[in-house]
Give the backbone structure.
Amino acid sequence: MAQDKSIILCVDDEQNSLALRKLVLEKSGYEVVTAASVNEALEKFSPDKYDLVLSDILMPGRPGTDLAREIKTKHPDFPVILLSGVNELPPDASYADAFISKVEGPIRMCEKIAAVLGGYRESLGTSQI
Amino acid sequence: MPTHDKVNILMVDDQPAKLLSYEAILGELGDNLIKASSGREALEVLLKTDVAVVLMDVSMPEMDGFEMAEIIRQHPRFQKTAIIFISGVHLTDLDRLKGYERGAVDYISVPVVPAVLRAKVSVFAELHRKTRQLEILNRELEERVNERTEELRENEALFRMLSNSIPQLAWMANADGTVFWYNQRWYEYTGSTPEEAQADAWQKVHHPEHVDRVLKSIQHSWHTGEPWEDTCPLRGHDGRYRWFLSRSVPMHDSHGKIVRWFGTSTDISDQIAAEQKIRQLNTDLKQRIIELETIMQVLPVGVAVAQDPQCHVVSGNAALSEMLGMNRNDNLTLTPATPTRMPFGVYKNGALLPLESFPLQQAARTGLRVGNSELEVRRDDGKAMQILMTANPFFDEDGSVRGAVGALFDVTERKQMEDTLRERADLLDLASEAVMVRDSSGILQFWNVGAETLYGWKRDEVIGKNVHEILQTAYPVTSREIDSRLISTGRWDGNLIQYTKDGREITVASRQAIKDGTTNEGGSILEINRDISSQLQAEDALRKTERLAAMGRVAGIIAHEINNPLEAITNAFFLLRDHPSLDDEARHYARMAEEELLRVAHITRQTLSFYRESTQAVEVSIATVIEDVLELQTRRLKLNNIVVEKDYYSDGAILGFPAELKQVFLNLIGNAVQAMPEGGRLKVRVIESTSPNDRRKGVRVSILDNGTGIRPDDAKRLFEPFFTTKSAKGTGLGLWISKGIVQKYDGNIRCRSLRVNGGYATCFSVFLPGTAAAKSADKGKAQEAIGSR
């Protein structure tokens, strides 16, 4: 089963938020690697090592949208989800596959991640057959 | 034979033998020899014939030679007849003297020597012959003189007759100037008679002022022999002077010597009078022309005169030159043949006018008047002016066009004034000011187009009705106060709230004045109202927008700052809720906390729900969205005893994001439901419409309820964040968020609450401009055909 666990690279500058989100995701059956900034995330990132990137938008340094853009530019088929507490959808949020509001709660968050991963798995599966 | 004329020679002797001898001696001469034997006989012969020589014997019986010679000589005819005496006796000297006294010319003594006799007789015969020839010549000469004299007399008679018949005065003078004849006309004119007429009579009829000059010039003429001419008044028989042209020419004889002067005087008074008249007329004409030219030059109207139908020569006055920007004396001629570029162009209705269409040229060419023609003159120096031009042709005596006159009026100022007035009128129209006149009791007497536009009531619908009822005017003070102020000061200014025919509330800036008289009764009131609703709305909107923007930014920051810890807490409680270490009581507390967290999340979600679930706008049917919302509210509608009326005139298809739109109508319908706690009617209408502001096409949704209504004070703050009338029940963000979403779609939302029949009617109206509505119009029709509703 461990082999089947999807690995999520979770990015947020706030330690508590990041730790709690990691716990929630792990409870939902995902393996989670954390990064505290976009730069750290890019250092750790490799499309082979992770199945999905879940990143906060507003962070010191570079915003999460930068991360989404960089990953999507190199690996368009790699799923990226942005998460934010802001009201307005940032202009380049469109690089991400989905956008989740922080007020939507843990259950809705996990559903969206599953939906995005499911979509990719489906297309990947069909292409491999 | 002698060739000369024969003369008669008379031989007298009483002796026949002597006669015979004489005959023989003288026969050689070849003349006629006549013999007489006595003195008596000789006398007879003498009387009958012309005798050249008498040869006579002195001693004869009856009458001797001397006696006979005496008798002959007594006759004047024979005084010069030559008598030769022959005497046989010796004559004494006394006798000879006696003979000579008696007329003898010669003596021949006896014996007669024939040669002497012949020689002497021949001399006398020849003398006689010569004398006779001379006499003939004399006679012929006399005859010729007589003939000429007669001829001359006839010519002169003819001449005088002619001279008398001519209308001129005529006279003749000798070479020295002495007048010896005047013609009949002269006497008639001067009233004098031939008896009175002296040599200097002519001087007396000359005008005293002229006579010296005339005399001098005519004397000069007499002296030099040159013809003379002068003009001078001559006195008539009535004492009046008339002007005469006098001429005199000399008449010469065959040697070129002046023998006479012939003169005439022609009455030229009429001519002079006519000339003077013509001169006067010319002077008058010149003055008139000068006057006219002066008038033309000082006239503030441009005048152009074409002197010929082709307008080869055109002259203009100072005003024209100034108008056209030319020098005063420039030739204004404009013909195709003169390619000289004039320093101006003439335009009609903005188009350059070809030369042949200029009014002056047109009138000159066609002979027809060109009426008021509106032209624009654009000068090379950049000046432009509006010209009103008329042109009239003028004709010569036979009716053909001789030229034309054009008058140009500078109407630039008038035009500008007209334009200004028109602009002002346009501005008044644009301002849509309503002008009305009413009497003191409010009955309308006048209602302008502006009022029709502003209020939607046509003139016919309102005249004679009460203005307060028509417009449902809400006065800031009582109308009585306004009236009393009007009466006391004559005017009143202020803002009024009124309603249009279609129920729209408008705010007008009203100015009112008593039109005539200041009495209580009968004075009409002029009221000019300007719609300032949109102005007020705009000001209001601007104020609110600014506040909203500020509030929005603050709310956004707050929301973000709340959301982050909220997520962490929510996640923490999510993990805590099913934590095995918790006992039931702790789990209960955790769940309570989680529920309260949901409320917090609900508030922030409302403020955060601007985000879009999808990034691509899709075609959304507003009617469908509303159906979904009503579906969700079914339970509450039933519970609250609310009847729903749905008027879907359209699918209301636009491009948009369904979740956002759902949020809008969920808020509006939710509010309506909450406004009717004791039941009521909810009316929902979807209709394709155009924006009242900029005429865009789109969808209008109206949500009406007859619930508790909204107070005017509240109505103004309705769309502000955190404003609520529902105290604890509402977040105060619903309408604010709804408005934000609608504005994102470039639409608008407004609310009106009216008091109707003791209750209230509240209407929220949303306009969403829909390019999609237009684009998918065909699709909409197709759906209608399927029978969607």
